[in-house]
Write a structure and sequence with these properties.
- This protein has 369 residues and is of the alpha+beta class.
- It folds into two domains: 202 residues; 144 residues, no CATH class.
- 53% of the residues lie in helices and 18% in strands.
- It has eleven helices and twelve strands.
- It has a six-stranded mixed beta sheet. A four-stranded antiparallel beta sheet has the order 4-3-7-10.
- A hairpin with a 2-residue loop joins strand 3 and strand 4.
Length: 369
């Protein structure tokens, strides 16, 4: 075994070990629904059972399943956790919370515990303040989606424990959706790995006989043209299914979508090793259709009204494309610069093999409850 092959095997082993703790692509989130009536704020918090388990260890028997009995026995701890990590205020004064009954609701990505509450404030509430601090200590990518009755532009996204004030007649700006698209691609490691798998071979001119005999590409312009073809095909594909899914024409179960996205990453990387398809733009388009369903889950969770949907789709898609462009702008020059070195061959073969293994592990993880 050559040194390059040993390095490739080592790289695959390291990435595979890291994949054991890989998270699902869909962001961890909770939904906070609020309605203001005079001095009373009524609401409901929907938090994923899996997230509550990560924070409070609800699975007491360690069998990997959270039963209703385990949830019921932990209800006091859950209510205390919610009370300590979320407040509703009118100005600087917290409004006392009274909790109602809890229930289980099924959302697109699994079971959520729904907890109703009532906050009675001293005076009429015009712009309620919310301090939401749930789950950030265990997942830095967690987000709280605050849905307020009368909010025109969808949910307010809370990304840390900083208090926020909500105007019930407010609107979400186009720039907010652009920023959300950039964040989503920047933290969507499976999308980034998919792009990486597609552009890893860009430094080589494909051989008609075998991938191993491919020669280094001579002109940067040729590499740029090929990457533009790949990114354009991926953009067209995921834009189609993003629109189809976000407007409600077709909805697929989140668990199946996320698992299929992981398999698409594995397929793109495996194509570098086995060379089933030379036209990587075709691979990008075909498999990119799956990624649009993953992108749409972000917008669907925001609960957008129909009048805000077009702006949200355009802004979010623009943000995704800007995020992709930033990734390509960094990676492409580096790959082209080292295309004549042994390190590039190691990165291409070893990196592709590692991506196949990691993505296969993700696909299994995402299918499991």
């Amino acid at each position: 075994m050559t040194t390059a092959h040993r390095c490739a095997v080592a790289a695959a082993a390291v990435v595979t070990a890291a994949a054991g703790s890989a998270q699902a692509h869909k962001p961890s989130d909770a939904h906070l629904h609020l309605a203001v009536d005079g001095n009373v704020v009524r609401g409901r918090l929907d938090a994923a059972v899996r997230d509550l388990d990560a924070a409070l260890t609800l699975d007491t028997d360690g069998d990997g399943r959270i039963t209703w009995g385990e949830l019921a026995s932990a209800s006091g701890r859950i209510d205390a956790y919610v009370r300590d990590h979320r407040t509703v205020t009118d100005g600087p004064t917290p409004c006392p919370l009274v909790f109602g009954a809890a229930a289980i609701v099924d959302l697109s990505d699994g079971a959520y515990r729904a907890l109703s509450f009532r906050a009675e404030c001293a005076g009429d509430v015009r712009e309620p303040g919310v301090s939401y601090r749930l789950l950030f200590e265990i997942d830095a990518q967690h987000r709280g989606l605050v849905h307020v009755e009368g909010q025109r532009g969808g949910a307010l996204i809370v990304r840390d424990g900083s208090p926020v004030r909500i105007a019930t007649g407010g609107d979400t700006s186009f720039a907010d959706f652009v920023a959300e698209g950039i964040r989503h691609i920047a933290t969507g490691f499976d999308h980034l790995l998919f792009l990486a798998a597609l552009i890893l071979p860009v430094g080589l001119i494909p051989s008609r006989r075998t991938a191993a005999r491919s020669s280094p590409r001579g002109a940067l312009r040729d590499a740029v043209v090929e990457v533009l073809e790949i990114v354009t095909a991926f953009t067209l594909a995921h834009s189609i299914t993003l629109v189809v899914s976000a407007v409600g024409f077709l909805h697929l179960p989140s668990r199946l979508v996320e698992s299929a996205i992981a398999l698409s990453v594995a397929a793109a990387a495996a194509n570098n090793l086995l060379r089933w398809v030379d036209a990587r733009w075709a691979v990008a388009f075909t498999l990119g259709l799956l990624h649009g369903f993953g992108f749409s889950s972000v917008l669907v969770d925001l609960g957008l009204p129909s009048h805000a949907l077009i702006g949200a789709l355009l802004g979010f898609n623009l943000g995704v494309e800007l995020g992709q462009a930033g990734f390509v702008a960094v990676v492409l020059p580096l790959l082209f610069a080292i295309r004549r070195t042994a390190a590039y061959r190691v990165l291409l073969w070893g990196g592709s093999a590692a991506i196949v293994v990691v993505a296969a592990i993700w696909s299994v993880q995402r299918l499991l409850p």
